[in-house]
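Here is an idea for our session: we take a single protein and study its fold together. To get us started, please write out a protein record for me. Once you have written the record down, we can walk along the chain together.
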Amino acid sequence: MDKLDLLLHPVRLRIVHAMSGGRTRTTSDLCASLPDVPKTTVYRHVALLADAGLLEVTHERRVHGAVERHYRLRRERAVIDADEAASMTLDDHRHAFTAALAGLHADFNAYLDRDDADPTADSVGYTQVPLWLDQNELAELIDEILAAIRSKGHNKPTPGRSLHLLSPILFPLERPSHEDG
């Protein structure tokens, strides 16, 4: 299975998100984090990610006669880089967007299903903002957003921090106008 097919699946995307921050987790931990996903499905997708080298086993221990594996995400392998993105077909992009939305929808519903869900207190947002930008302004905006994300992207789990999912989506709604404003 190639990396695009591997990563462009809603459940595997959610597992990759749940493994972020350098955490070491068992499949049982992941099942608890993804209560809406059947356990057999989580185990199957963890095995696929491990076999492909996106998850590495950090250690194993015996628990009630079974081997419990502790996994860590190999972050550098769990990214679709610029060259891979450039080689994607329009159908690949359609598939990737659908997988991302399906994973996002499932994660959001899992959040809302929690007993402690409080969208206002948790600063939940899903605002869409149409912006008129030329190519230079677009490039500048992307650089600013990426700089802000990178400044927090290597944070590790610590007391007081919780995992948040930021899902920027950007695409043109119209072709550029060649008319004077």
